[in-house]
Design brief:
Elements (H helix, E strand, L loop, with lengths): L1 H8 L25 E7 L7 H13 L1 E10 L7 H13 L9 H11 L6 H11 L7
Parallel strand pairs: 1-2
Helix pairs in contact: 2-5
Length: 136
């Protein structure tokens, strides 16, 4: 992914700096504290809530004032009723890789090591770190 990002962002020259690291030990990542933006794509849902909180706080500390954090990730489906609606929507969209029922969904999360948080929890973690959540 870093190689792909490097190729795609090459036209921005010195304005772009890519760093590789482990989201559970970000203190080992060399990153400036004046980043204009950080992007997390399909990665934070692997963290438990404490690790997610730590990653968000670390990111806030490495952004320049007014910097942006973009998160594109999975959200937890918080109830069986909402899961049914979610599954129906995915089927209508022609995207039906998800289990058909709630217990299957919970098992699927467990098997894949996924721990997505509900949107309200993510917004709370962002605000606790100092971010102003702009939307979902």
């Amino acid at each position: 992914m870093l190689s792909l990002a490097k190729d795609r962002l090459a036209r921005y020259g010195e304005r772009v700096r890519l760093a590789e690291g482990d989201l559970t030990s970000l203190d080992r990542v060399e990153a400036p504290t004046t980043c204009a933006a950080a992007i997390a794509v399909q990665s934070l849902h692997h963290l438990d809530e404490a690790q997610y909180r730590s990653a968000v706080a670390w990111t806030f500390d490495h952004l320049a004032p007014g910097g942006w954090l973009f998160i594109i990730d999975r959200l937890a489906i918080p109830s069986e009723t909402l899961y049914s609606a979610f599954h129906d929507l995915r089927e209508r969209q022609g995207q039906a890789p998800n289990p058909t029922d709630w217990s299957g969904y919970l098992e699927w999360l467990e098997v894949n090591g996924d721990r997505p948080l509900p949107v309200q929890a993510i917004l709370r973690l962002l605000e606790d770190a100092g971010f102003q959540a702009a939307g979902c």
